[in-house]
Amino acid sequence: MIAQGPRVAHLEDQYRAATGTKHAVAVNSGTAALIASLHVLEFEPGDEVITTPFTFAATLNAILRAGLTARFADIGPDFNMDPEMMAPLVNDRTRVILPVHLYGLPADMDPIMAVARERGLRVVEDAAQAIGASYRNRPAGSFDIGCFSMYATKNITTGEGGVVTTDDDAIADRLRVFRNQGMRSRYEYVATGENLRLTDVQASIGIPQMDRLEAITASRRANAAQLTAALDGLPGLVVPTEPHDRHHAYHQYTIRITEEAPVTRDELIAALAAAGIGSGVYYPRVVWDYEIYQNHPLVTRTDDVIEAHRAAREVLSLPVHPLLTPEQVDAVAKAVADAFAAR
Length: 343
Ligand SMILES: *Cc1c(COP(=O)(O)O)cnc(C)c1O
Hints:
- This protein has two domains: 6-211, Aspartate Aminotransferase, domain 2; 213-341, Alpha-Beta Complex (Aspartate Aminotransferase, domain 1).
- The chain contains eleven helices and 15 strands.
- Strand 6 and strand 7 (138-139) form a beta hairpin.
- The chain is globular.
- A seven-stranded mixed β-sheet has the order 1-9-8-5-4-2-3, sandwiched between helices. The protein has a three-stranded antiparallel β-sheet with strand order 7-6-13, with no helix packed on it. Strands 12-14-15 form a three-stranded antiparallel β-sheet.
- Helices cover 37% and strands 16% of the residues.
- By secondary structure, the chain is α/β, with parallel strands linked by helices.
């Protein structure tokens, strides 16, 4: 077995255990997880999804691929969709709320779930960056339909890969059928489908990482704590927040370089690069702010996303991965502090 076989089933068991859900369905990417989830929910043209404007293009592309209309609610200081901005956007065509747990920090799920319950909406979590994270002791991906990525850069990686987690038997069944050409058993076609299968080769790479998920997350959290202790208080620099009821998986450790900082973001990036330290801007623009989405009929643009635009100008992610030594984390923090002091 080198295609989908027992190793994939084992990895699915690990995702079920990690998220506490009844089902986990592995697919070949996080994008596929999102597209398949929206597909099997069986919506009609004109149906709408409310999501965040501050995310990776895959979130929006999946919505558009499923033929759904995207609306955007501004973010809060946690970089995630603000439930108070989201609630007024719900209308008669709204079917799904799609929060993204950006950088590995869960969105504020209780008010989101309350709106979903009240208005009869499904919730698809883009948990691509959030394996190992939790909200009020509930794992990310366990609220309704959770979509994980195992892309090369993610906390758990199989090179490419994705997983959908849910307690919903019917959704899990439709996902398993859809990922395998619409077959329930051999040559018994019950739906139109695709080939979204993960392979046992990929699963074999993910399984030992999932065995160490707690240690991997703990290491990222320790690195983040060390960075925050060193960086908190630099003028105009905002360290990442972790509300007391949320467990951050620190897929990214993301600071803000505000206008009050003595260096610009570009200057800091250059200073870090000169010190041999990589950094990244995730993401430089709000998700629809590209030519391709400009006049897209399914993209509902809005000016009411001021915080998302501000974040796009200010964010910078620093190294936080589990292979860093404490000395290397110190060197990262020192390089940032030096760049601030040089001005
Ligand atoms: C990585 C990512 C995806 C897509 O996952 P792939 O496995 O790359 O297809 C979707 N949403 C977010 C927020 C991501 O970071």
